[in-house]
Amino acid sequence: PDRAVAAMARQEPASLAELNRIILAADPLVPGATKAVLGEGPEGAAIAIVGEQPGDQEDLEGRPFVGPAGQLLTRALEEAGIERGGAYLTNAVKHFKFAARGKRRLHQSPTAGEVKHYRWWLMKELGFVRPRLVVALGATAALALTGRSVSVLRERGPMRFCRTGSEGWDGFVTVHPSYLLRLPAGDGAEQACRDFVADLRQARGMVE
Ligand code: URA
């Protein structure tokens, strides 16, 4: 896979559309995914939001953040005063990785190697979108954006995401909405959701 990535990197796409064509033509690193799920939103968006990977519904629909975690994210963005359509939404890994259990497709976390495989795409993509702030949802996105393992609960908040040398983006690390969906119902879960919205509100304040 690394040689394939190097070959793709040499294609030097001149636009986001060209990059997306390369992404769509690439073989999924993980077998079974229906299609690559591309980023969505305007080039030049002030905020880019990076998730982990498409889930079951995203894979079927070919759009990011349309399943349960995406719906939670959409509501949280709204509460935080961020218009979803004005933000650029994408994922660190572009294909849905799952284990088949009968008819169900159970989400599998990508390995660090898989995140690395997709990193080139993400960096190019953000290079075309040129957001003023990149929000990492969860540890996988933070790994893709920093190249190191990040403890989300300990390090949540503003962080510089570096590409090469001094190049990079102002960033913000927060939890992944799937984490919130997994918390058992109760006061703690509600507080965690409020904290998530507060993080997004703080992120919005960084581009205003
Ligand atoms: N979770 C993600 O990280 N990305 C999606 O697109 C959907 C769910």
Please tell me about this protein's structure.
Belongs to the uracil-DNA glycosylase (UDG) superfamily. Type 4 (UDGa) family. This is Type-4 uracil-DNA glycosylase. The chain has 208 residues and is of the alpha/beta class. The protein has one domain: Uracil-DNA Glycosylase, subunit E (3-Layer(aba) Sandwich). It is 45% helix and 17% strand. It is built from nine helices and seven strands. The strands form two sheets. It has a five-stranded mixed sheet with strand order 2-1-5-7-6, with helices on both faces. A two-stranded antiparallel sheet has the order 3-4. β3 and β4 form a beta hairpin. α5 crosses α6. The termini are far apart. Uracil (URA) binds next to α4.
Keywords:
208 residues; Type-4 uracil-DNA glycosylase; globular; two-stranded antiparallel sheet; binds uracil; alpha/beta; 45% helix; Uracil-DNA Glycosylase, subunit E; 7 strands
The gist of it:
By secondary structure, the chain is α/β, with parallel strands linked by helices. The chain is 45% helix and 17% strand.
Give the SSE map:
Blueprint: H1 2-9, H2 16-25, E1 47-51, H3 56-61, H4 68-79, E2 88-91, E3 98-101, E4 104-107, H5 112-129, E5 133-137, H6 138-146, H7 152-155, E6 157-162, E7 168-174, H8 177-182, H9 187-207
Bound molecules: uracil (URA).
Provide the β-strand percentage band.
15-25%
CATH architecture, by name, is: 3-Layer(aba) Sandwich
Fraction of helical residues:
40-55%
- The fourth-level CATH homologous superfamily is Uracil-DNA glycosylase-like domain
| Topology order in helix (H) and strand (E) letters | HHEHHEEEHEHHEEHH
Overall form? globular
Structural class by SSE content: alpha/beta
Strand segment tally: 7
Give me the CATH fold name.
Uracil-DNA Glycosylase, subunit E
Overall pLDDT level: 91
Strand order, largest beta sheet? 2-1-5-7-6
